[in-house]
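Below is a filled-in request sheet from our internal design queue. Each sheet records the structural input a requester submitted and the sequence that came back. We keep these sheets so that new team members can see what a complete request looks like end to end.

REQUESTER: design group, bay 2
PRIORITY: normal
MODE: inverse folding
CHAIN LENGTH: 157
BACKBONE (tokenized):
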């Protein structure tokens, strides 16, 4: 993960000359986004086996200003909200994917909603999110994930 950030700092992008043995396929961009969509599909139905499968060992996450050392820890928080009746909808939109060899960086807008207990309708939500992924044994795995909720617009005066 840090190698990719160092490469960005030194080269200004992920497009520095790739080593001769580095092969990046156009399908990698799609596979990176599919990994994120798999994460959200699994989170929607509490499929912890599938969720753990998209994260690399040692991966960690930042969400709501808190560091989580595993997807299990973050999902416990989500599970606690669901136990109270909250419902979440997540959608990966506007993905901006940069792949270099076996590393990928993706930034995207999570355009969804939260329905809190007793609410008549869902409250639209947007999160600005990014992830660092690594291709391990031919499969893209999330090694770092961050999410920042976009504050709702100020009411008109």
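RETURNED SEQUENCE:
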């Amino acid at each position: 993960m840090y190698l990719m950030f160092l490469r960005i700092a030194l080269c200004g992008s992920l497009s520095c000359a790739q080593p001769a043995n580095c092969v990046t396929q156009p399908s990698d961009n799609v596979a990176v986004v599919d990994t994120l969509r798999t994460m959200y599909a699994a989170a929607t139905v509490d499929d912890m086996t599938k969720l753990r499968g998209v994260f690399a060992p040692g991966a960690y996450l930042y969400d709501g200003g808190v560091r989580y050392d595993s997807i299990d820890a973050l999902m416990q928080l989500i599970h606690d909200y669901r136990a109270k009746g909250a419902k979440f909808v997540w959608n990966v939109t506007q993905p901006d994917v940069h792949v270099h060899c076996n590393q990928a960086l993706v930034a995207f807008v999570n355009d969804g909603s939260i329905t809190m207990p007793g609410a008549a309708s869902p409250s639209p939500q947007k999160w600005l999110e990014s992830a660092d992924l690594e291709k391990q044994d031919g499969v893209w795995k999330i090694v770092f994930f961050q999410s920042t909720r976009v504050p709702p617009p100020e009411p008109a005066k």
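SHEET NOTES:
- Residues 27-44 form the longest helix (18 residues).
- The CA atoms of residues 4 and 103 lie 7 Å apart.
FILED BY: M.R.
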